[in-house]
Amino acid sequence: MLFLGVDGGQTATVALIADETGCVLGSGEAGPCNHVQGAGGREKFIAAVRESLEEACRQAGVAPEFAAACLGFSGGPDDKEALVREILSVEKLLVTDDATIALTGASALTGAVGRQPGIVTIAGTGSISCGRNAAGRRARAGGWGYVFGDEGSGFDLVRQALRAALRFEEGWGPQTALRVMLLTQTGARTANELMHRFYTTDFPRSRIAALAPCINDAAAQGDVLAIELLHAAAGQLAMITAAVRGQLFTAREPVRVSWMGGVFRSERVRERFHTLVELEDGCTAGPAAQRPAVGALMEAFELAGLAVEPTNVPSPMP
C-alpha cells in the first residue's frame, strides 16, 4: 500500500510518498499552488500538484495509486478538493488547510504516533498560529492574509521595510540602510519605483517575502530601524501564539510551542520569540519536529487507521 502527503503553500508544493511501514520512498517539489481563483490559478494549481507528485513517483518507482492521501493547502481546501480528485487515484482522501498538516508535523514526538497536543506558529510568506489540546479541540489566531493581517510574516516585514525606505526618500523618516539593500536586491532606482514594481504581477507576494533577509542583514550592520522591525515581528508572532494558548490550555498547563517558516531563520526573531513565549509558565518553545509535508503523510496514515511513524524522511526536506 502507498500513502501520499502533500504540502501546497505560497512558496512551493511538496509531495511525499511512503509505504505502509511509514518508510518514505520518494519526494517531489514544484511551484506554489495556494490560489485556484483568478487568471491561470486553476492551471497553476493542477500543474504544481502533478509535477510534485510525478517527481515523487519517479523517485519511488511507483504508479500514482494510493490507499490514502492527505493534501493541505494554503488558502483552505474548499475550492481544491474537486480538482485533487481529478488528479489522484486514491481510496481515502483528506483535503485540508496547511495549518492542520503543519500542526501535526510540528507536534510530532519521536516514538509517538497520531496527533499530539501543542501549538505551531508559522511565519513564512504569511503568518498564522494554530494549536490542538489533549481533547482534540483546535484553535487558531492570525492567518488573515496580506491585506488584513499576516503580521510578522516575510511579506509584512518587507512591506514595513519599503515603507521606511519611502519615508526616508521623501524626507519624513529616519535614515536606514534598508533603502539601499532593497534597491540593490531588485535593481530599482528609487524606493518609489520599487513600490510601483511591487504592485505588478512581476512581484507576487512570495517574491516580495523572499527579500526579508535584507532586513536581517541591515540589523546585523546595526541599523536601528531594521532591528526594531525584527523585534516587532517576533512580538506579534508571540501575541498570536498566546492567543491560541489562551483558547486551548489552562494557566500553567505544559504546552509545547513550535516555530516554522523562513522568518524564523533570523536569529533575532527566533531568540526574541523564544524568550517571549517562555515567559508564560508551562510553555516550552523550539523548532518544529517535522515539516508540513510529513504532517500530511501522518494524517494520511491516520485516515487509513495505521499507527506508524514516518521514517527515511529526506533531510533537509525539499
3D architecture notes:
The chain is built from 11 helices and 10 strands. The protein is an alpha/beta fold and 318 residues long. It has 2 domains: 2-105 and 291-303, Nucleotidyltransferase, domain 5; 109-288, ATPase, nucleotide binding domain (Nucleotidyltransferase, domain 5), CATH 3.30.420. The strands form 2 sheets. Strands 3-2-1-4-5 form a 5-stranded mixed β-sheet. A hairpin with a 4-residue loop joins strand 1 (2-8) and strand 2 (13-19). It is globular and about 65 Å long. The protein starts with a strand and ends in a 15-residue tail after the last helix.
Task: Give a brief outline of the structure.
This protein has 318 residues and is an alpha/beta fold. Helices cover 41% and strands 21% of the residues.
How would the blueprint of this fold be written?
Blueprint: E1 2-8, E2 13-19, E3 24-30, H1 41-60, E4 65-73, H2 81-87, E5 89-97, H3 98-106, E6 118-123, E7 127-132, E8 138-142, H4 154-170, H5 178-186, H6 191-198, H7 205-209, H8 213-220, H9 224-248, E9 255-260, H10 267-277, E10 283-287, H11 292-303
Parallel strand pairs: 1-4, 4-5, 6-9, 9-10
Antiparallel strand pairs: 1-2, 2-3, 6-7, 7-8
Supply database-style keywords.
5-stranded mixed β-sheet, alpha/beta, 10 strands, 2 domains, Nucleotidyltransferase, domain 5, globular, about 20% strand, single chain
CATH topology of the largest domain: Nucleotidyltransferase, domain 5
Number of domains: 2
Instruction: Indicate the mean pLDDT.
Output: 91
Strand content of the residues, in percent?
15-25%
Name of the CATH class of the largest domain: Alpha Beta
